[in-house]
Specification:
By secondary structure, the protein is α+β, with helices and mostly antiparallel strands. The chain contains six helices and six strands; from the N terminus they run H-H-E-E-E-E-H-E-E-H-H-H. About 40% of the residues lie in helices and about 20% in strands.
Length: about 160
């Protein structure tokens, strides 16, 4: 198992996470740690704000405004699935699909979806998270240049 810093969970976020089945909650906490860990490895991202949007745990870059909002969630209607959501108009998921067509399952242009039994490709997922956290710095770049930027800012840190 990977070691992540112990970042306190905002109380309103903890309330929501505590409504989820334990197995799902642990999976979402893992995604949460990946978001914070990735953000900490990229100087231009700055502090992450944890809040609720649409009643779901959400992560923003309020000080630097470098990134697009990320959300983590589980829906009772899909008991075996949990997801990492991205702003659908941010063209992030299409970029992920192009870069990692076989690595992930996608929910349209808004999410990367996981089954509770999936083995998560951590390095690739952290690259997707990094692209979202630096979205406002890279959105006008062509796709290859966007990914080169992500590789540069994440290469000096261990991603797995």
């Amino acid at each position: 198992m990977h070691k992540f810093p112990d970042i306190p969970i905002k109380s309103e976020v903890a309330v929501v996470l505590n409504t989820y089945p334990q197995e799902i909650k642990s999976k979402l906490l893992f995604l949460r740690h990946l978001i914070f860990d990735t953000a900490a490895s990229i100087e231009s991202v700055g502090e992450i704000e944890e809040t609720l949007k649409w009643g779901e745990p959400s992560y923003l870059t309020p000080k630097t405004k470098s990134g697009s909002t990320l959300r983590i969630a589980w829906k009772a209607s899909q008991k075996e699935q949990y997801s990492l959501y991205f702003k659908c108009t941010a063209n992030l998921v299409p970029a992920f699909k192009q870069r990692f067509p076989q690595k992930f399952k996608f929910g349209g242009n808004r999410s990367i979806d996981f089954s509770v039994n999936d083995k998560i490709p951590i390095k690739e997922l952290k690259q997707c998270i990094a692209l979202a956290l630096t979205y406002h710095l890279n959105k006008k770049l062509d796709p290859p240049t966007r990914w080169e930027m992500i590789e540069k800012v994440t290469d000096h840190k261990k991603l797995s």
